[in-house]
Amino acid sequence: MKPIFGRGPSLQLRLVIAVLLSLSLMAADKSLPQVSQFKFYLSTLVSPLQYLANAPQSALTWAVEHLKSRQKLIEENSKLREQALIDSAELQLLAQLTQENLRLRQLLGSSERSSVRKMVAEVFSVNSDQYSLQVVIDKGSFDGAYVGQPVLDHNGVVGQVDEVGSTTSRVILIGDSVHSIPVRIHRNDVRAIVTGTGEVDKLVLQYVAHSTDIRIGDLLISSGLGGRFPEGYPVARVTSVVRDESFPFAQVTARPIAELDRLRYLLLLWPNAIDQPLSEGAN
Amino acid sequence: MNLQLPNGRIVIIGSLLLALVLTIMPMPAIASAWRPTWVLLVLLYWTMALPHRVNVGNAWLFGLLQDVLLGAPLGVHALSYSLACYIFALNFQRFRNFSLWQQSLLVGVTCVLHQLLRFWAAYLFDDVSLSYWILLPVVSSMVLWPWLFLLLRKIRRRFKVR
């Protein structure tokens, strides 16, 4: 019989090393910048596995899209045309409004708003840790994604980039219990902070005084304070307000505008970069 | 056909990588809640079968890879898997002589400890509440163990991994 642990350090020593390494990684994670560099290499290393796990799903999607009947395609096409017509009517108005807004802002002497660079990303259908709300997307540092980057979908704010690999990144959603976003109430510009609870359909507003003017149904939009999320994107809608004087603050909950449990295509924003319109290239 | 691979390292690494893929494979929400702890099961098998080759070191490495794949706090799975494989490598002679269902119970206990450690780590980083569904993977892992054991033993003998 072979000597069982003939080579290398003894089993006990290995365990001690493994435990110490794990504990120090757990302690250093999120605090040391070197760890995020290490994480970048590791996520790049494991990204082939993510592509592999995603492959059956994407093959299925591909098949469904390519085997659609002619009838369905025609129907969808006409529906999209209709939508495009309605949108273009609204856009005509928007151009005029933007011009007007710019003039008014110049009159007031406040800074001008510029449109920001955007990129569409697709969500990988891979499983994530059950104790947090995250998704993996197919854009990484090669596409210019960076940690802390705001992420939207067609409804509203979804979250921010938490980890970047070379071709994939991980997005932490606004519903995660460690995520907070500064907002203001669209109706009266009262500021607040929205924090996740770990559930996809429930957010809480922190530190709202009992006397604050806030009602059920109020739309909360990103306030742009903190400099991470650009101003004015819809975040959530207030679902309940409880003013129990035995608590120091009113208990306010809200529901995210974006449906966090059925994300497919996301929009990455570069708030500090000037837009190079995608549509120009297409025309 | 000569199927004898050099040391069979490819078989061991391949089975562990496949377990990692199964861990992140998309599933309907109900099936996902019952998802067995694949990597832990495969690691425990190899530790019991070949404790001189697969033990704490491999467990730590694959735990770390799973941490990155799941976006869990770095080091949680690594710590848990290292501890589990330490126990199995230390007692491999005793555990090998257990019957399949006794082993299955043992795997269940290890799995509960693993789930509790994960919960404890998540609890340290943010406030989450303990709920019964962390036990669902334990049940499915216990049911899966005998089949996985027989399958991996067959593979190990076929490719003569020693």
TrEMBL record, chain A:
The keyword 4Fe-4S does not apply. Keywords: Cell shape. Residues 123-270 form the Rod shape-determining protein MreC beta-barrel core domain. Coiled coil: none annotated. It comes from the Bacteria. Involved in formation and maintenance of cell shape. Belongs to the MreC family. NCBIfam families: mreC. This is Cell shape-determining protein MreC. It comes from Corallincola platygyrae. The gene is mreC.
TrEMBL record, chain B:
The keyword Transmembrane helix applies. The chain crosses the membrane at residues 68-92, 104-125, 131-152. InterPro entries: Cell_shape_determining_MreD (IPR007227), MreD_proteobac (IPR026034). Pfam families: MreD. It is found in: Cell inner membrane; Cell membrane. It is a multi-pass membrane protein. The keyword Transmembrane applies. Keywords: Cell inner membrane, Cell membrane, Cell shape, Membrane, Transmembrane, Transmembrane helix. Belongs to the MreD family. PANTHER family: ROD SHAPE-DETERMINING PROTEIN MRED. Involved in formation of the rod shape of the cell. May also contribute to regulation of formation of penicillin-binding proteins. This is Rod shape-determining protein MreD. It comes from Corallincola platygyrae. The gene is mreD.
